[in-house]
Amino acid sequence: MTERITALHGAGGEVMDQLLARLILPRFGGRPSGRISLLAGDDGATLDLPRDGEIVFTTDSHVVKPIFFPGGDIGRLAACGTINDLAVMGAKPYALSLAAVIEEGFAIDDLERILDSLAAVTEEVGVSVACGDTKVMPSGDLDGIILTTSGIGVARRAISDAGMIVGDRVLITGTIGDHGMALLAARNEFHLSTRLESDVAPLWPLLAPALDLPGVVHAMKDPTRGGLAAALNEMARKSGTCIQISESAIPVRSEVLGLSELLGISPFDVANEGKAILVVDPARSQEVLDALRRHPLGLAAAEIGFVDREYPGRVVFETGVGGRRFLDMPLGDPVPRIC
Amino acid sequence: MTHPFRFADPRRARDLVDAIRLLAPREPVKLVHVCGTHEIAIARHGLRRLLPDTVRVLEGPGCPVCVTPAREIETAIRIAETGATVCSFGDMLRVPGYGRSLESAGASGADIRTVLSIDEAVRIAGDSAHEVVFFAVGFETTAPMTAAVALEHPPSNFSILASHKLIPPAMAALLSLPATGISGFLAPGHVSTIIGTGGYGPRLADCGVPVVVSGFEPLDILYAIALLLRQIRDGRAAIENAYPRAVNPDGNLTAQRLLANVFEPAAAEWRGIGILPESGYRFRPAFARLDARARFDVGVIPEHEEDRACRCPDVLTARAVPADCPLFGRRCTPLSPVGPCMVGAEGACAIWFRYDGERPL
What we know:
The complex is a heterodimer of chains A (339) and B (361).
Chain A: H1 14-23, H2 25-28, E1 54-62, E2 68-69, E3 72-73, H3 74-87, E4 91-103, H4 108-125, E5 128-137, E6 145-155, E7 169-172, H5 178-186, H6 204-211, E8 217-221, H7 227-239, E9 242-246, H8 254-263, E10 277-280, H9 285-293, E11 302-308, E12 315-318, E13 324-326
Parallel strand pairs in A: 4-5, 9-12
Antiparallel strand pairs in A: 1-6, 2-3, 4-6, 7-10, 7-11, 8-10, 9-11, 12-13
Helix pairs in contact in A: 3-4, 6-9
Chain B: H1 10-23, E1 29-33, H2 36-44, E2 55-59, H3 70-81, E3 85-88, H4 90-93, H5 102-107, E4 111-114, H6 118-126, E5 132-138, H7 143-151, E6 158-164, H8 167-176, E7 184-188, H9 189-195, H10 201-204, E8 211-214, H11 218-234, E9 239-241, H12 253-262, E10 263-270, E11 274-283, H13 292-295, H14 312-316, H15 348-356
Parallel strand pairs in B: 1-2, 1-7, 3-4, 3-5, 5-6, 7-8, 8-9
Antiparallel strand pairs in B: 10-11
């Protein structure tokens, strides 16, 4: 019989201690965050952080449907989401917190799979899980599981998403739209079958070499919810510059394009979970591209545009057939068009 | 992005743009399409910027949600208020009618459901003890699906509020309105797959304005524009097919048979235009039991007063572009729409706002 989460698991007594001892400590106990770590089971943990540089702190709650999707699951997403927020601030990730809100009746096998994928990411990046919390909610009060991760990292000098200047080049680390389209296809409503997988991946190992070139990366952002369109618009708006993008330079998988045509949803409006936009010194753009392309996640890295003053705060898009338009902020969740 | 589809090839696009420049007359011409999907393709690919200044392309009544009269939205809401479940497409829900929309009625407790197809509404009826009504909007493209369901003996608690509209009568009506000044029509490819190029003949064969059926890829649209300009240059006004890979002269005979079995042409009200003869469908008597209008008594609905500043009527009749409207991007945005053209995903205002923001490039 399938072993399931019960209300007792969230009650803070012996049953919860047993669950933590069994599920959490073996996966995350081996990489202590500091003198007092997760293993101590104390009210908090201490962190051994480098003394120089800026400390960067971020948090994100993760819900996803389906919980297990092609190319990943909510565990991998929760680890990568926070690690990537640190990475695009230019910060090496050191420690995460992990809070889980679980629906009563959730299969413990599934929880283990989720924790395994989360642990695989923390191991790959070398980041500690310093502290955590578990709550159980009555069946029906939430849809499966919510994972919240906060993260601490240290940057030599943190990189904002608005630090670009006129003349800079805009780079993207790989193909656009994979995560969003893979999830749209995985939800059964459209009865589609594809081999498309989410791109969910930790970005720090990819970005670290580019950040070793001092002063070259002026701005960075990960195009998650709202996709490339939302991220570029936010960058243009906050910096007061105009971003000029060439559609034909943006790497997009043909499966993603096909789905996008079929559903009437632009690949630029849907989430990516393993990509970053870098805005760099024009004289060093090729060097950054070379550094990115040396990592497996950066093979499709490309220069997609530049920064000027034509329409401050806006993103101008040169289309594949040579037309021009603004690339606008998506308004909400994309829904398929019906004729 | 390397486009894997041949119909967006940049080199061929340049060739067609060159042809269009050669064919374009010196005096301005106004080309009108009647299809939101055309408008989306034109905006998404930035095609207007490729055309010479003398060639303007406008969207007419091409958005099924936008031309659905406020009276019918109010009818659907009143039906929902009797306790019935009302299902429709997501677009339809937010269109403002008499100070309220299906969405706001849903928030006030009515059972309003978004569906992706009429089949989903039939399934809901199968699982429900209550009356379930499908609010059927759309042109010749969606009407055959409504007809197919009507012929399949849906559950007895299922009925249809049919608000389908026909494209050729609307095109003909635009020509008879004052100040439209239309030099040529781009006819919608998907409607044409159903009615065939022959479907335009009865209304438009002798109208004196060229009609070219167009597909939806950038090259399809540029090619159709080139054919229209060539007809204009040569002083011809024929119905031509620039989308032969999908459209034939006769159309989809099965779909036409379904439609003829279930519906008969009837006068229909178009929001922003008025009542046009034989431009919609009503159920034939054998299907009267499926007609939600007969099943529910919603009382008398008074004339609807549109916001006077809203230029949707002019946009829907190709007498204005969205940017001509004083409300566009100011008081009227997709988040707080005043007129229907800012709501429907196929509406010209929503499309312009989406691709060009409050101020076109």
